[in-house]
Design a protein that fits this description.
The complex is a heterodimer of chains A (295) and B (271). Chain A contains 15 helices and two strands. Chain A is mainly α. Chain B starts with a helix and ends with a helix. The chains are: A mainly alpha (295), B mainly alpha (271).
Chain lengths: 295, 271
């Protein structure tokens, strides 16, 4: 009986086959290969030796990993804050404008910075931070604040903070639009009821808007999580991980293990560790937000 | 009292907007100034508008910009086709194992790229696909389609059944239903998927850096990074190159802006 059903559904299977072929070849296969090879010594393509948990033991005493995880934690916390707070504030400000037309133009203008390629933004900030010619030091000099001038990327005390500051004021267009959509969908009756009860704008934000926006917040969190930890491009360009260990992150170390040392097995182990962290982190965040705010 | 509050809101908004747009404005203005002018008088308006940076910049980054544009366009077209087709099948067809297969796809949305980077690189190299557009397009297609499938399935299941049935009674084939009803209705959602993916693919840096070494095949992000070390002090030329590399994103955003904003604000993107 079941076989006949399957035979009848042949056309459906055929239509979804291309999607599944791609996913099997370029997502499932490399993922499984990565998990398997995390437990091997793998230095030549095609030759790998099972070494159990040796790679993970080595990681525990690898200073690049230890410093890297601390740096990554700071970067990720900052990335979350940057992904959520500025777009939310701007969405609320736009929402406070009385006329629909003005709101429309505002959100359109805030989407415009998307036209600058990411690498261009990163390189422009590199230019801003340059110790001698850089815009930041020149401006500080012109304002008579010479003592504030720094080697922004060359000083271990400032390098990580300088990388975090890239993209100020961090109004992400996608998150902004997602939040505006959420605000527009709050039923008018709820807002009217709040107004009649005498709730001011701030109380409305905390007691109505934020609880009503939980699905949108969750989406932005997930998007930030997916984008954040693998984004070591900015670090590769700005500091290459230095000075010292100051801006190393595990993903950058994984990249260097692959391309400079051909330690593919060790690189896979770093990847697997990051995967485990991201997965548990996102599950935790999503669960917390669910139980906390839906009730 | 209310007026005063509103002015504060406007002040904050315009301030934040100015800061957000500053890199774009700076990029355009500096691309029109000579090197000397940039060094001696950074903030000034260009003395006279100079286009001479552009021919040189065009010669250095036109090729890589076209490479990025080509890869992004082909990947996006594939992503749209696959996500609407597969999304449609999951929304409208009934077959054994449907929900299991669907979760096998959707679970991958949360799969971080970092786990794949090294094994996928070695896979692509063993297949002999490195230094070709396939090394970029195939992985982009595989990963990019996932959110599209999720959104399209959600959207197609909201289209009332009668729509399809009346078309079928009128003698439309499955293909015609797909082409004449499903695709036009889903334009906002598909444009949103296209713009998000175009943006992500065009901006990707690490993966192209890993799999493309041939000078002629490099994408804009990698090429402009290489240039930043070569032409460190050619500011005018560099900024003109930035502007040229931004053009595909300008065009993509202008073309899709209306649907993009509508797709997100009315499409009810949620997680």
């Amino acid at each position: 009986m079941k076989w006949r059903k399957i035979a009848q559904a042949r056309r459906s299977y055929l239509l979804i086959a291309p999607s599944f072929a791609l996913v099997a070849a370029f997502l499932y296969y490399p993922a499984l290969s990565g998990i398997y090879h995390a437990f091997t010594r793998w230095q030549t393509v095609g030759v790998s030796i099972w070494v159990g948990i040796d790679n993970f033991v080595a990681m525990a005493s690898d200073p690049f990993i230890r410093h890297g995880i601390t740096n990554q934690l700071m970067l990720s916390l900052a990335d979350f804050a940057k992904a959520l707070i500025p777009p939310f504030i701007v969405a609320e400000l736009i929402y406070a404008l009385p006329r629909e037309r003005e709101r429309y133009w505002m959100r359109t203008f805030f989407v415009l910075p998307m036209v600058a390629p990411m690498m261009v933004i990163i390189l422009m900030w590199y230019f801003i931070y340059d110790a001698n010619m850089g815009l930041l030091n020149q401006t500080l000099g012109a304002l008579g604040l010479d003592s504030w001038r720094q080697a922004w990327l060359g000083d271990p005390d400032f390098a990580l903070g300088s990388i975090i500051a890239i993209g100020f004021p961090w109004v992400g267009a996608l998150a902004l639009l997602i939040f505006m959509a959420g605000l527009n969908n709050i039923p008018g009756e709820i807002l009217d009821a709040a107004r009649i009860d005498g709730a001011g704008p701030l109380r409305r934000v905390f007691h109505i808007d934020i609880p009503m926006l939980v699905p949108q917040i969750r989406l932005v969190v997930v998007l930030a999580l997916i984008a954040g930890i693998q984004d070591f491009g900015r670090i590769l360009v700005m500091t290459g991980g230095g000075p010292g260990y100051a801006t190393y992150v595990p993903a950058l170390w994984m990249y260097e293990q692959t391309f400079q040392l051909a330690h593919f097995g060790y690189a896979c182990a770093i990847g697997l560790m990051l995967f485990a962290i991201i997965l548990s982190g996102s599950t935790l965040v999503l669960r917390l937000m669910k139980s906390d705010m839906d009730t | 009292m209310r007026d005063y509050r509103l002015s504060l809101v406007r002040l904050a908004l315009y301030g934040l907007l100015a800061l957000s747009l500053l890199p774009v404005v700076m990029m355009i203005l500096l691309s029109l100034k000579s090197n000397v002018e940039i060094i001696t008088d950074f903030w000034s308006w260009p003395n006279s508008i100079r286009w001479d940076n552009y021919p040189a910049a065009f010669a250095t980054v036109a090729g890589s910009t076209l490479n990025s544009l080509f890869v992004s366009l082909v990947s996006c077209a594939g992503i749209l086709l696959l996500s609407s087709l597969t999304g449609f099948v999951f929304a409208r067809h009934e077959f054994p194992g449907k929900e299991l297969l669907f979760s096998l796809l959707i679970a991958l949305i949360m799969l971080p790229q970092v786990l794949l980077l090294v094994p996928l690189f070695i896979e692509i190299k063993s297949m002999g696909l490195d230094n070709s557009y396939w090394a970029l397009i195939l992985p982009y297609l595989s990963g990019g389609q996932l959110i599209g499938i999720l959104l399209c399935r959600g959207f197609f299941s909201t289209i009332p059944r009668e729509f399809f049935e009346s078309a079928r009674i009128d003698g439309a084939s499955e293909f015609q239903i797909y082409g004449r009803i499903v695709l036009p209705l889903s334009l906002p959602i598909l444009t949103t998927v296209a713009i998000i993916n175009f943006h992500a693919i065009y901006n990707d840096f690490i993966w192209p850096l890993m799999v493309i070494q041939h000078q002629d095949l490099k994408t804009f992000a990698v090429a402009i990074f290489d240039l930043s070390t070569v032409y460190r002090f050619e500011y005018g030329l560099t900024f003109a190159a930035y502007v040229i590399g931004s053009l595909p994103l300008v065009i993509a955003l202008l073309a899709g802006m209306k649907y993009f904003i509508r797709g997100i604000t009315e499409g009810g993107l949620k997680a």
